[in-house]
Design brief:
The protein is of the alpha+beta class. It folds into 2 domains: 139 residues, Fructose-1,6-Bisphosphatase, Chain A, domain 1 (2-Layer Sandwich); 107 residues, 3-Layer(aba) Sandwich (D-Maltodextrin-Binding Protein, domain 2), CATH 3.40.190.80. The protein contains 7 helices and 14 strands. The strands form 3 sheets. A 7-stranded mixed beta sheet has the order 3-4-5-6-7-8-9, sandwiched between helices. It has a 5-stranded mixed beta sheet with strand order 11-10-12-14-13, sandwiched between helices. A two-stranded antiparallel sheet has the order 1-2. The structure holds L-MYO-inositol-1-phosphate. L-MYO-inositol-1-phosphate (LIP) binds next to strand 4, helix 3 and helix 5.
């Protein structure tokens, strides 16, 4: 795939993120009329999720008919050129009227993320990157932090009901006990953007899905950070993932984000 072909997908993703954000906001501004149901414990699904994903799926199919598409709600199959989308990441926040949610659009070539656009409409922030061209927030360059001292580190630890709550608590206790400041904001995609922008020093989650990270991986790496799962691989079917400023990566944090076996 040529740089021009990747850049074209980057430009289209930037435009679609804004359009998807406007569509999501049309639901957010009428929450009382928006249908919401639970997919599981603390796992919200709103009608906005489906509408935004359907819009993105159809627009991308029209412009790039030979590309594959995987969405959180509608699924999809792998392809050499593949879009992986979370139409609303931070759905629980979105459903409750909290501003911390986003649209995450990732594009992969041969399963390597090469384009990432994450748009947070209420926050007025768009994080974007394409392979080799750096990472930006609203068009301005961003870099990961230079924190090396765990006692000065801010680390976000994501959670979902996909693993026992005790596993999450144990990880928080271990890392907090090492002296890091820990937090959770309920959007994995924005958690990666916070690392890329230097607002936090690492993002960990014991089980995270590909649509939560596909865009953020590019943004973190192009901002000078690192991404890996706990086994040191660089896989998209990530069970456990660590994103950091690189410096924090080699500290004991990387050895802490483990859990027994696959789920
Ligand atoms: C979110 C994920 C995140 C997790 C949140 C939530 P959703 O996805 O991005 O990894 O920590 O609890 O599951 O459901 O908002 O699209």
């Amino acid at each position: 795939m040529t740089d021009t072909e990747i850049e074209l997908r980057y430009l289209v993703a930037l435009g679609l993120a804004q359009e998807a954000g406007a569509l999501a906001m049309s639901y957010a501004n009428n929450r009382e009329r928006m249908a919401t149901r639970m997919k599981g414990r603390q796992d919200f699904l709103t009608e906005a999720d489906g509408a935004v994903e359907m819009m993105l799926r159809s627009r991308i199919a029209r412009v790039f008919p030979n590309d594959g598409f995987v969405g959180e709600e509608g699924g999809g199959d792998g392809a050499e050129n593949l879009w992986i989308v979370d139409p609303i990441d931070g759905t629980a926040n979105f459903a409750r009227g909290e501003p911390h949610w986003c649209i995450s659009i990732g594009f992969l070539h041969k399963m390597k993320p090469v384009v990432g656009v994450i748009h947070a409409p209420v926050l007025g922030e768009t994080f974007a990157a394409r392979q080799g061209a750096g990472a930006a927030l609203n068009g301005g360059p961003i870099r990961v932090s230079d924190t090396t001292d765990i006692h000065a580190a801010a680390i976000e630890i994501g959670w979902s009901d996909r693993l026992p709550f005790e596993d999450y608590l144990g990880l928080v206790a271990k890392i907090g006990g090492m002296g890091a400041s820990t937090k959770r904001s309920a959007s994995g995609a924005l958690g990666l953007c916070w690392v890329a922008a230097g607002r936090t020093d690492a993002y960990l989650e014991l089980h995270i899905n590909s649509w939560d990270v596909a865009a953020g991986i590019v943004i973190v790496e192009e901002a000078g950070g690192m991404f890996t799962d706990v086994w040191g691989g660089k896989r998209m079917d990530t069970r456990t993932a660590i994103y950091s400023n690189g410096q924090a990566h080699d500290c004991p944090v990387a050895s802490l984000a483990t859990h027994d076996g696959d789920t």
